[in-house]
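hey can u check if this looks right to u? its 252 residues, i copy pasted from the old doc so theres a chance i mangled smth
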Amino acid sequence: MNQAQSQDIETFKGIALFTPGGDLIYCIDPKKQGRWHLHLCAGLQEILNLPEPPHFLVPCYTATIDRWLDPQTQQIQTYAEAYPLVLRYQPLLNAIFQTDVVWQAAPVTEGLCDPILLATYRASFPQLWEEHELVVRFERSLTSSNLTEPVLPQPSTKPNLQPLGYTLHLFIAGHNPATERILQSLRQVLEQFNYPYTLKVIDVLKHPEQAEIYQVTATPTLVKVSPKPTRRLVGNLDNAEKLLELLTFPEI
């Protein structure tokens, strides 16, 4: 084996996607051409017979590794990071990627991987919370067309929706059963629109400065941060018509 062939084997980009139940699907790309998070979600959908790709697992249940050749030292360098929810799987990650490194904790934005918010998907995706002892290497060449070209979420046909994702902030006062019901109700209403969104949960008891910045005086309050203009909905968050108005109509 010549040096070029050896380098092709030693350098790669790897991605792992876990389920809350501990199952794993991963890919290794020796050509380092891209990241396949959506492909892995589509793979889980087919393997576990899910109603749709579980995009909400990204990035909170992911781990990535990159091995490259340092052009100055001609030495193989490795950087591996995993989100806190999957850091405990380091031995398994080292086994599948055939390495022996200490995985770094990926930085998490406040509210991004809120366990209560993630748990609201459990009723719709119960298979993800079950343990199937699943460890699958995703191979692009061995999968059906729906895995090689996963279907991305498409905008709703409802009038006035623009082809952009929404950034929403939900302001709450502490995590309790009432908060969990609010999150469950809000997620169900949002997903009726089948439209991409990012929801950040902000506890005003821990971050009063955020409430001041967004002029939040009562909870729960949902704030549409982008696209502009900023709008807010206070109180009843399970009203689909009010939520649609929040997303689609300009500030009055």
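The mean pLDDT is 78.
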